[in-house]
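Ticket #4471: structure export looks truncated?
Reporter: QA, pipeline team
Priority: medium

Steps to reproduce: submit the single chain below to the structure queue and open the exported record.
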Amino acid sequence: FGAWRANDALLADAEQRAQWEPLYGRPLVVHGVVEDAEIRGVQTRLTVGQLRAREEYLPGFLRTTVPRAPDLGEGTAVRLRAKVEPPEKAGRAVRSDLSRIFRRQQVFATMGFPDLQIEGAAQPSALTRVRLSLRDSFLRHLPEPAAGLYSALVLSFDKDLPTSLRDAAANAGISTRTV
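Actual output as written to the record:
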């Protein structure tokens, strides 16, 4: 059963990636919603989902790096314009483990420093509103570090996990669950 599911997942990935193939290597305008914004100094690494280009919806996610902007965060609607590349051609040579991570995260495209236009805050889905509401309840009603731990483990809000608990988990070898 496991082999059948793995094969089915590979076929689904191949079908989704096939939709991106004609777009690789070409300049493109892509509209989407920021799913993750990781600040790295003066830059922000974005994972963008709900992608649309040429009036077509595209599967998976696009990863790019842009200059840091105060209005840029999760849920922000953006317009990106640059050359689209497959993840394995992302600037420098991508390690094979990073390539596997991209596949697992369904990142099918990258853009190198695109022109960025912020189109506004996206309306969060009903599921996102429930997750945020539960997170707020955890943080309001539970003492630390329990609030951060529940928020991280149950709702995947890793940033709520206290640094001391994150370090202790890493030292104990369970960092894959909490970091």
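Status: closed, not a bug. The export was complete when the record was re-opened. Leaving a note from the reviewer for reference: The chain has a mean pLDDT of 80.
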